Amino acid sequence: MKTKKRKSIIIVIAVLAIMLVIIAATESKPIVWKESCTGCGDCANYCPVNAIKVINGKAVIDHERCVNCKLCITTCTFGALE
Ligand code: SF4
Ligand code: SF4
User: Fold this and answer.
1) Pocket around ligand 1: residues whose beta carbon is below 6 Å from it?
2) I want to staple 39 with a disulfide (CB 3.0 to 4.6 A). Which of 57, 65, 76, 80 is the partner?
3) Which residues lie below 8 Å from residue 36, measured CB to CB, with a gap of 6+?
4) CATH class of 2-75
């Protein structure tokens, strides 16, 4: 009986973990508001996977590389990332 209950708990946890991974993967990735971006490069410096480059004075995000951690959004003091 205890083993059956333990198996059920493990299945529920596994399903929840899979759902969280799917939600994280499908959530939209950050975008840059070009009008607000000053090209300071702070977001690029903090991106853990080097997915941001400043090109012609504006931040450009490589969405293939981005892991959607949202660190850049909290880093930008100009509100240029959403
Ligand atoms: S931190 Fe903000 S203002 Fe600076 S380059 Fe990144 S998006 Fe642009
Ligand atoms: S969300 Fe994270 S990984 Fe994606 S560009 Fe911003 S800092 Fe880099």
Assistant:
1) 32, 37-43, 54, 59, 75-76, 78, 80-81
2) 57
3) 78, 79, 80
4) alpha beta
Helices (H), 27-70: 42-46
Nearest atom in ligand 1 to the alpha carbon of residue 75 is 1
**Which residue ranges make up each domain of the chain?**
2-75
pLDDT tens for 6-40 read 888 777 777 766 676 666 666 799 999 999 999 99
Distance CA 78, CA 21 (A): 30
Angstrom distances, CA of residue 77 to CA of 25, 26, 50, 81: 26, 26, 19, 9
